[in-house]
Every structure is written in C-alpha cells, then in structure tokens.
Write a structure and sequence with these properties.
Blueprint (H helix, E strand, L loop, with lengths): L2 E3 L3 H9 L2 H12 L15 H7 L9 H13 L2 H19 L8 E7 L5 H4 L5 E4 L5 E6 L3 H5 L1 H14 L14 H24 L11 H8 L10 H6 L1 H6 L11 H17 L11 H12 L1
Parallel strand pairs: 1-2, 2-4
Antiparallel strand pairs: 3-4
Helix pairs in contact: 1-2, 1-4, 5-8, 8-9, 9-13, 9-14, 10-13, 13-14
C-alpha cells in the first residue's frame, strides 16, 4: 500500500495570492486528486462547493489571515508529520490485525475558514473525515491545540478508514445506527490514545463531557436510531445539528465522542484488548459489554 499526502501547501498559497476570478478553477485542480472520496454521492459533485460546505478556506476574503495561518501549518511541518504518523499507525495496526485490507491512501489537507463561526468555535477549528476507504480529509485552523494533535487527528481518521475498508465493517447509510458511529469514534480515539497518550489522543470535542453521566444516559437512549441523516445531534451535538439542518435532541457539542470513549474503554477493559486489536469489534458487542459492566 502507498500513502500519498497531497502537497497542498503551494496550491493553497497560489490560490490565496491569485486574482479572485482564477481562484475557483485553481481550487478545483487542487481538489481533483481526492475527488473519488465522493464516489458514492449522487450525480457529479461540485468540489468547490463541497470545500465551502466543509468550512474550507474562503476564496473571497481573509487572504492575509489565511496566508499567515497556512505558514503556521507549514512551520509546524503538518504535511510531514501527518505522513510519518500514518506510516507508523499502519504498522501498529497491521501488527495487531495482520489480515486486514489496508487500501492505498490519499490524504487531503486544507486550511479552514476563519470567518466560519461554527468551525472556529464549537468545532474548535477542525473538520476531518476518514470514513471513505482510501481517503482522509483533514481541515485545520492552526490553533496551538490543533497543531499539537496533528498526528493524533490523522490516526483517528485512519482508524475509521480501516474499519470501513473492504473486508471490514459495512456502513450502509440507510441502516447504520447511531451506536455504530459512536463506537467508531470511541475506537478511533482509543487508537490515537494508544499511540499518543490521553493528553493528545482524545478528540478535543468530546473531552468536556467524558465524565458527564447525564450526557452518557441521554446518548445511550439513541444508540439504535438508524439513518445517517439523524446522526449529527447525537454525535456532534445540537449546535452542529442546527448548523446542518438536523433536529437537535438536547446534547452538547461532542456528546457522542465522550460516550464513545466511555463505551470503548469499558469494552477494552473487559476484553483485555488494545484499541488496535479491537479495530473491527462489533458495535453490538462493544455496547452490550460496556453497559453490562456499568451496572
């Protein structure tokens, strides 16, 4: 397998320095090598529109602020650190589960939008997706906390990628449960923590509610809800649900991450497995084991 971390630094810099009329075409060209991550979307995907929807850097404002932030990512060696972290993590994972399929990986790193209040606030300047086999998308604003967690964030998304690659867990958007995504977030955090420790390995979004029993109890009531369109509030919280047109359910930001960590930690403690060994653990087994241990 190969890991290709697209060198988006010079392309982003060129886009931000170019005349406004040229920027969309330049962005389209930058994103094209990762376009297949949207292969299951109906119809042709507008990559530039998808970039904006995902809180990617703007094409019509904040140029200097974005250029300064881009330099912060470069100075932090974001591209190199992420590539090295992914190689290391694949090695750890294959040592634990040698029979899994590891696809060739294409990694797209972009700068976020400083004018997006939700991205910069509740989302803590980070937006990532590793659920599409063969692709990892990482969108950062270089808050110091995010720069410290570049490696952990990348291997969190790698864990998702390997869980849902061919031969792994099947993700059917119509029938998948809230519980599956919450377990997957817990497993991905546990893998990042296995490699980088608790201080860096936890996704920041879930940390404030790790010990919140009321949040835990509420999320547990939604674990069997099906259909991806219903997940945002249960996993990311009400603010994210409102942002993306979903129905709030009374949960704070990162609720699903917090609960996923608790469920997975209980499962790992009960089974004696490492996070890497539990990559393909059945979500039902994780939930049942964890809830039984909590009684």
């Amino acid at each position: 397998m190969t890991i290709t971390v697209l060198d988006t630094y010079p392309a982003i810099r060129e886009i931000l320095r170019s005349p406004h009329a040229d920027r969309a075409a330049l962005l389209q060209a930058m994103l094209a090598p990762a376009a297949d991550m949207y292969r299951y979307f109906p119809g042709e995907v507008d990559l530039v529109a998808m970039h904006a929807m995902s809180s990617g850097f703007p094409l019509d404002r904040d140029e200097q602020r974005c250029l300064d932030a881009l330099e912060s990512l470069r100075q932090a060696d974001a591209w190199g650190r992420i590539e090295r972290a992914l190689h290391r993590a694949v090695g750890v994972q294959l040592a634990a589960t040698p029979g899994i399929t590891v696809p060739d990986l294409t990694v797209l790193i972009v700068l976020g939008d400083p004018g997006d209040a939700h991205f910069m606030g509740p989302s803590l300047g980070m937006n990532a997706n590793g659920s599409m086999s063969g692709y990892i998308y990482l969108n950062f604003w270089p808050y110091p906390e995010n720069l410290a967690r570049l490696e952990a964030t990348a291997v969190h998304e790698l864990n998702h990628n390997l869980r849902y690659s061919p031969g792994g867990v099947i993700w059917d958007p119509a029938t998948v449960t809230v519980g599956e995504q919450i377990v997957s977030e817990g497993l991905a955090d546990a893998f990042a923590r296995q490699l980088y420790g608790d201080e860096l390995g936890y996704a920041r979004l879930g940390v404030p509610h790790l010990g919140d029993d009321a949040v835990f109890a509420k999320v547990v009531t939604g674990l069997e809800i099906t259909g991806m369109q219903n997940f945002t509030a249960w996993v990311h919280g009400d603010e994210a649900a409102a942002r993306y047109g979903a129905t709030p359910v009374g949960l704070p930001a990162g609720a699903g991450y917090a609960v996923g960590n608790r469920l997975v930690d209980a499962y790992l403690a009960a089974t004696g497995q490492t996070a890497a060994e539990a990559l393909l653990a059945d979500r039902r087994a994780v939930i049942d084991t964890a809830l039984a241990a909590a009684k």
